[in-house]
Amino acid sequence: MKKYSIRKVAVLGSGVMGSQIAAHCVNAGLDVILLDLKSDDPDRPNKTAEESLQKASKMNPAPFAKPAFKDRIQVGNFEDDFDLLKEADWICEVIVEKMDIKKDMMARIDKIRKPKTIVSSNTSGLPISEIGEDCSEEFKTHFLGTHFFNPPRYMKLLEVIPTDSTASDVSQYMRRFCEQVLGKGVVICNDTPNFIANRVGIFSIANIMPYFFYGDFRAEDIDLLTGTISGYSKAATFRTADMAGLDVTNHVAKNLYPSIPDDEMQETFNLPDKFEEMVENGMIGNKAGKGFYSKQDGEYLVINPESMEYESQQTLEDPVLEDARKIKDTSKRLKFLVNSDGKIGDFLWNVQRDLLMYAANRIPEITDSPLSIDRAMQWGFNWEMGPFERWDALGVKETAERIQKEGKEVPPLITEMLDAGIHSFYDDGEVYHPGSKTMVDIPPEAEGELKVSHLRKQNVPVIENDSVALHDMEDGVALFEFKTKNATLGGELVQSLYKALDKVKHDFQALVISHDGDNFAFGANLKEALVAKQNDDWDSVVDAVNNFQKTAVALRYAPFPVVAAPFGKTLGGGVEFCLYSDKVVAHHETYMGLVEIGVGLIPAGGGTTELLRRAMNKLEGEADPLPFIREVFKTIGMAKVSESAHLAKELGYLRPSDTIVMNRDLLIKTAKQEALNLVHAGYRSPAETSIKVLGKTALAAMKLMLHVMHEGNYITDYDKVVAERVAYVLAGGDLSEAQEVPESYLLKLEREAILECLQDERTLDRMEHMLKKGKPLRN
């Protein structure tokens, strides 16, 4: 019998974080109660929570995977509905950051909660143990911190903070629950001020501020130097602060300062007066429209710290930066920049030195694990490299020597590590463990994870070239990996997939299609098609179209189950591979769309045909098929992209029976299991079935839609032309009456339509524009 099981969650406090945590719990399929203060309005006692949910539903990016999910949350207030907490398996407190109010709330919860109900606080800095100290022993064993990062749906990090009283099985259960059900990357923290990510992250921002307010670097210079070029996030330093809110940064630093008297860098958290002035004047970042940056008349201006006025940005130019950009490896690029001569090198060395020393000196105070600090910074602040990866990049020994030469004290962690004969924090799948002064295996990001990188360490790929690899996942399941840049589906990849199907047929029982990249697929390789057409190599263009469609359709009729496991952007041909797989296991954050029309093409890898089939399969009895066809036409014609895997089901890109996985690290493992389930159920490939089309009736209706949109200037002349080609396929051509046609008939229409597009100069103009500018041309 399971000791703990969470189905019903009560979120207390419906502010920005509370409403979004509630939304994410609903996304994960949990039953959610959301309570807040009782309103003074006698007709609307739950007005506070209701209005918070309404605000959340309009946020961008959206906290809800589907707008309709908002209605699944049961709202109430602390006065009338506190009894609802008796039903909760997990109570998550997200009320105001004041100790006395939190303690009062915990006392109320203690009186009403059922035994074994887990209670957590989402405080960002108050001591967890103090919040629950006055409660019963049974309460305290089930109490801990769960610190979500904003926005909770999208940020991977969740800091779990057990107290000395928290039962170890409660901590372990919450870790697994938050990984598997909520899809989070969990880092266990000590109950210390601001835990891990904010302690190190706010230090980093605070430590850099004086270089802007009192130094000779502009804000945009610092953001360039502390952005992706040196292994931080795209938002760098000041854009990150603007996103988080300068008032929040100020609040965290002010609270932190008195609570860390023994911190050797305590004074760093005493932020510059000019920064305080910005906050007092309402210049608090994106939510106010002005912070370090302000968008005015379409231009992002930057603040001048002397005049406190906004001005145009300037571009920092230096030969060092030009040389650095030629270095693809981030670790090597960081080392080059830090060791370069001049003010850029000096600035980056000073900033890295302070960060590296600070992180090293926080062990074992905030955690005993360098890996936990690195993961917290990667998952909570989107840094590419955590502090201890930076130690490795710069060289632990040489960095320690440089610190010593400057007359500073090398952190004890580093001295002990070097004395033990260990010269890097990471090495061949192992990480340094300070407690034992040895290297230990790097634990998985989520329990049970399976990644392509793991498969590579275990075995040499069965097949491999520059574009793909076929891996043995054991148990009779193979994995097909895309290796191309941006996961574009070029000729070599498509042909390799077709050949791999034959290999799987003979040597395996099932196939999974996925990889470890950031996005599943950006669609066909436009450059290949454009170059072939420009070189008058029409035969190659025709072959590419035929091969792509033949390969996508072959996924369905292979004599073994094929499971696609998409994630991130899944566009064009990537969607078609999913449409023709037997099963899709999609990450919650999968953004699917047949977007071909934007580059003057139509979906011709079976996508138009398959969406039509799925629409016609929805028909019941004598229902009129035309509204269903119109919906497919709008989906393709407007290049609709789902904002979640749940919405991909609504658009027909996923079946209702397809699986949605919250944690990306568990995606391939789940896909493998689903493939084996199909094998064990005695899988047989489906027979080809006919599809009902309406012919001229549907074609006329779709052309009328296009006429109205064109007259209203909603679509351009060429949008109309390309959309008419889509309409022709969806209608089944200009057949005089409704009839059943074979799938192969519609697939032929797809091929003819896309080849017609590729012979049109306006399509070539769109393709070229997309390749050069990264956005569609509206010609």
UniProtKB/TrEMBL annotation:
Catalytic activity: a (3S)-3-hydroxyacyl-CoA + NAD(+) = a 3-oxoacyl-CoA + NADH + H(+)
Classification via PANTHER family: 3-HYDROXYACYL-COA DEHYDROGENASE FAMILY PROTEIN (PTHR48075), 3-HYDROXYACYL-COA DEHYDROGENASE-RELATED (PTHR48075:SF7)
Residue ranges constituting the 3-hydroxyacyl-CoA dehydrogenase C-terminal domain according to the UniProt record: 195-294
Protein name: 3-hydroxyacyl-CoA dehydrogenase
Coiled-coil regions listed: none
Pathway: Lipid metabolism; fatty acid beta-oxidation
Keyword terms: Fatty acid metabolism, Lipid degradation, Lipid metabolism, NAD, Oxidoreductase
UniProt cross-references to CDD domains, sorted A to Z: crotonase-like
GO MF entry, a single one: NAD+ binding
Gene Ontology biological process terms from the UniProt entry: fatty acid beta-oxidation
Top-level taxon of origin: Bacteria
Residue span(s) of domain 3-hydroxyacyl-CoA dehydrogenase NAD binding: 8-192
Record carries keyword Isomerase: no
